[in-house]
Fold:
Amino acid sequence: MKTFRRVLLAGALWAPLLGGLNTPVHAQTSPRAVIVASKPFGESYLLAEMFAQVLEARGLRVDRRPGLGATEIAFGALRDNRIDVFPEYTGTALVAILKQPPIADRQEAFRTVHREFSSRFGLLWLPPLGFENTYAIAVRRETAEKYHLKTLSDLARAAPLLTAGFTPDFIGRSDGLPGLARAYGFKPRQVRSLLQAVKYQALAEGSVDVIDGYSTDGRLAKYDLVVLEDERHFFPPYEAAAVLSSAIQRDVPGVAAALGELSGKLDVVTMRKLNERIEIDGEPIPDVARDALAGLGILRSDSTRAVSNVRVNGFFSYMWDRRGQILSLTGRHLVLVAVSLVAAILIAIPLGLLLERSRSSAEGVIRSVGLLQTVPSIALLAFMLPLLGIGLLPALFALFLYSLYPILRNTYSGVRDAAPAAVAAAEALGMTPHQVLRHVRLPLAAPIIMAGIRTAGVINVGTATLAAFIGAGGLGDPIVAGLALSDTRMILSGALPAALLALVVDLVLGSVERGLRIEGLK
Amino acid sequence: MDNAALEAVGIIKRYGTVTALDQVSLAVAPGECVALVGESGSGKTTLLRCFNRMVEPDGGQVLVNGDDASRVEPIRLRRHTGYVPQEGGLLPHWRVLRNAAMVPWLLDQPDATTRAAAALDLVGLPAAEYGERWPSELSGGQRQRVAIARALASDPPVILLDEPFGALDAITRGDLQESFIALRRRVPITTLLVTHDLNEAMRLADRIGVMRKGKLEQLASPRELLAHPATQYVQRLLQRAGVVAG
Structure:
């Protein structure tokens, strides 16, 4: 399909202008920017930020992609050289990526992922950072006391009375719930799927009785939770380490050496404290990373920095402090919406007019396009991944697909149903089909078509927040990050401007629609 | 008929297994007004629409001014054939004058607006007063007048009227019938009129064709029809319309 390719092409032309990830960066005259990414949870953000600061201290340019996506997305991006480095855990890599059975021995696990990643994908695992972050199955203290829970075997015994709240990730992974059920015979009364961000709160409030925490998570202590001992050593070792793309190893050899300095430097106590500062105290990640690096003697500490105390400030000053960033995210968001919407208009309106001419096939075509609408946006983005990678292009393409239906449906129905008596008379008096379309059907259908565009635009503003999951930026960035860090203000700093933007888009497109309304029609 | 303006010769039209027109022949002389009456489904509208090729017959021949209609390009034929549908069919997003000027504009006539204004005058809606109005600002009767003006604006040799007054209330219908009679006295235009109202046909037409089940039951002047109804059906029709005692 020619038009389809044109859209792709248009997207590809836009991408570099917008700082998209889709143009693989090849060796340039000066060393290129190192693209540092993370998965969407606090510790991953922090480690990535530490990587970034270490590299910047070595005079390298860094392009940050925090909270890029979960394991599969981040790994896929690294394999395809769309990002250069992100923090990963050996156990996760072994089970979720290599699809191998968990290995109990820590060093053996590292050797395996190091060898397999190198030979299969050309990716480099740097030596581990020094701490493990394994799953910590946790319960409230009162639950532990009531049922005398100390180990996972104890938990399995009491399980029929308990409701579990696990992340979707954990529910699906073989080193998660399925394996746990096998190893301990753990069968809770009910399993609820909970996001990382709400898990601890749900447990504290008693909505669930058991959660899958992370052993380095500061919130375990904050909520006074009891971590149950994995006495059968079911969970494989999850040692954190930096993983490097093949391209960066070739393009900027200094990266491995610089990040290698962090190997073995971070112990679990340090890590838990750092996580606590982020997730509980809500300190800015760059500050915490800087302090951590200073503490390790890798960076000089910056004594002039004011102690940040963001939680004390009000919401409006929080927003005000971030106005520049919010504005640029809003701009990026608007670009996502506008480009995808314009592309959808260029395809859907001609297609709708075409279908009006061959009505027998119309309903079938429109219904197939409508089917796209039923694909959940996250799933659609995931399907795009192998085809278009991450970043701007797949996001634009997904938004484009979502915009098609309302515009196509309204164009077709609007043009088909436009004033039948007027159309019949115009035909009977000698207008050509083209003239009927141009002078009768189209002007009469214009407000209806515009209403379709308006619907698509408003939906697009909302859906575009999900683009953050595949690194396309926009107002979804603070939402995704805020969800990962359980930071309501951060979520709102993306959600409120997005809501406002939807309102503005609706008003603007609504006034265009009114402008197109025919004067003679009351 | 020699020199007929409109002529149908043995027209057959089928829709699936239904025969809408069964060997219908009819001729309309120049300047004459022929009305087709009959129940819905009798085929009268189908026959009318054969003359501007909105319906293509399956058999027989349609002649317009002696030319075989099937050899005239349909768009061209329609632009030279006036047409007034039941609901007017004005373009709601065009003002009255522009609506009236549609056919001259389609024919690229340079004086399209002048012609439209003249036609509006003819139907009693002077352009100065009504030309800039939207169709939605007119009454139903006024809209039908504009539709008639639109059909006349380019001086077509023939106009086809498909139940032109059918959707109007009795008083407005009477007014328009008066105007139509007056109009025909000034412009002796060949007219084929479809109506379900025998009284209307009696008032307006020179001859009346009674249609039933795709056939022309009788074609005669109103006087002849009254005096010598050809079939029982025509007789009943006359009785029902109240023009003869039952």
Notes: Chain B touches chain A at residues 49, 52, 54, 75-80, 83, 85, 87-95, 102-103, 106, 134-137, 147, 150-151 (CB under 8 Å). The longest helix of chain B spans residues 170-186.
